[in-house]
Amino acid sequence: MKTYLESCMTAMINHFTFISEHFFTMTIWALVAGLGAWLLEFVEMYVFADFRYLVFLVLMIAYDAYAGIQRQKYLHNQDPLKHGPATAKVFKDKTFSKLMYYICVLSSLHGLAHVQIGGVEVTIFHAFEYAALISIMATEFWSVQENYYDMGKKTIFLLAWDKLKDFIPSKKSADGNQIDQA
User: For 91-145, what is each residue's pLDDT tens digit?
Assistant: First the structure.
């Protein structure tokens, strides 16, 4: 027990020595941490609170950007006169404008969905926020599918449609060949 207390006292003395020798640095780091905690709370309250969704959204935007670049390269290789090469300027402009649009939409809907009147949150607008979250994610997914479809690759929707056509009844023509209704 005596050794344990001596170790605790030594650790405490070393800790205070470190703080006194690095007082300015520790003060700056404490201020930065406090400001960061306040900023995070401010953003969660007034700007947007679902950071996990934002991670998935950023991933979907990255997937779409990659698929769009690959699509542009493919189309340029197929017909260089009709389709220009994939350039960083086009990529940057499209991605930045998409990000700014999503930031504006998500922030404004978050504000609308979590507005308080008389200290009570108005919950009727939550459906708008959820619908926007889902539609933005679905839009990114659909864009990735379109990019790969334009490259001539099978997409999830085409594979599903091929399987679904097996279950759709078809009519027979006069010569005995099947006519698809789909």
Answer: 888 888 999 999 999 989 888 888 888 888 888 888 888 999 999 999 999 999 9
Strand, coil or helix: what is 82? coil
pTM: 0.67
Spell out a b/e string for 15-24, using b for 16 or more CB atoms within 10 Å of the CB, else e.
eeeeeeeeee
The contacts of residue 150 (CB under 8 Å, 6+ apart) are 71, 74, 75
Q: How far is 127 from 146, CA to CA, in rounded Å?
A: 28
Instruction: Tell me how far apart the alpha carbons of residues 66 and 63 are, in angstroms, rounded to a whole number.
Output: 5
CA distance 35 to 24: 16
Alpha-carbon distance 148 to 66, whole Å? 10
Residue with tokens 């960083």: 88
